[in-house]
Amino acid sequence: MPVLTRLIPSPVVVDIRPGALDDLASVLADQRISQSGRLAVAVSGGSGARLRERLSASLPGADWFEVDGGTIDDAVRLADAVKGGRYDAIVGLGGGKVIDCAKFAAARVGLPMVAVATNLSHDGICSPVSILDNDAGRGSYGVPTPIALLVDLAVIREAPIRFVRSGIGDAVSNISAVADWELAHRVNGEKVDGLAAAMARQAGEAVLRHPGGCGDDAFLTVLAEGLVLSGIAMSIAGHTRPSSGACHEISHALDLLYPGRAASHGEQVGIGAAFATHLRGDHEGSRLMAETLRRHGLPVVAQEIGFGDDEFVRAVEFAPRTRPGRYTILEHLDLSPTRIEEAYAEYAASVGG
Ligand SMILES: [Zn+2]
């Protein structure tokens, strides 16, 4: 008998709407994630204090833990603090660093993790990966997918708009990442998971083609859903391929070559995706991506994030080394620095940079 279906590791709750935060306790109780209310809630030292003030009355059984940063040491410290506390779950309430620390700590102590994202800056809000700084730079650690994800759109609106912009770049970059994955399939026979590719691509296309702007709930809902689907696509595939191709290699290269000068993840991968799409010969697709990015206030050329053309070209050249073994348009073309320079000038002219 053939396998009739497959189980997809995915959260049992996805709650995206204005006011979702006010129902956190009842959602966790209803879904039997935490009936006792014994929760370890991780928050940042800064904006976390305000959230704690607002929520502590509705979460009387919770203990609160401050997360100082986004390093592996911070995550291990959180795990040690939570260990032995007889909690039902760890709640990561905050931005990327808090959620990544909570994911890692939950995996380490064997508890389910609830993600409550207070910004939409990248697709890690519901992914099976925890990104933490370590002694060697930055590491990606495999962890279980969050058991529940809450996004309160009223809270998202309070965060600086650059976080929403970053999420847009990360979601749109899926389109380029999936195209790279398919290229690897055609050239090298790499296996593409059709469902993971479909979810990641649809997430990117929905954000790309949505007529709304950062200020309206309809658009923010599609963006949040897109980031959730990207995370689940990675769970299905078992790796980050559906959401990470040449676009992300270029961004990692910028981070590594020019430490301290990096723009946001989404800004960098957005430019990377539009340029990679150009390199694949899809000039119309590249222009559409650039138009959308620009409409939402994102940069489309390197100069707009403070890098000279030569610095960007150097990053593109270096990019394949950031993900050895990953085959994208960069490894496929294997361009010389001069050819990268020419291609980038052509791209910049094409998108009007
Ligand atoms: Zn990303």
Automatic annotation (TrEMBL):
InterPro entries: G1PDH (IPR032837), Glycerol_DH (IPR016205). Signal peptide: none annotated. Keywords: Cytoplasm, Lipid biosynthesis, Lipid metabolism, Metal-binding, NAD, NADP, Oxidoreductase, Phospholipid biosynthesis, Phospholipid metabolism. It comes from the Bacteria. Coiled coil: none annotated. PANTHER family: GLYCEROL DEHYDROGENASE, GLYCEROL DEHYDROGENASE 1. This is Iron-containing alcohol dehydrogenase family protein.
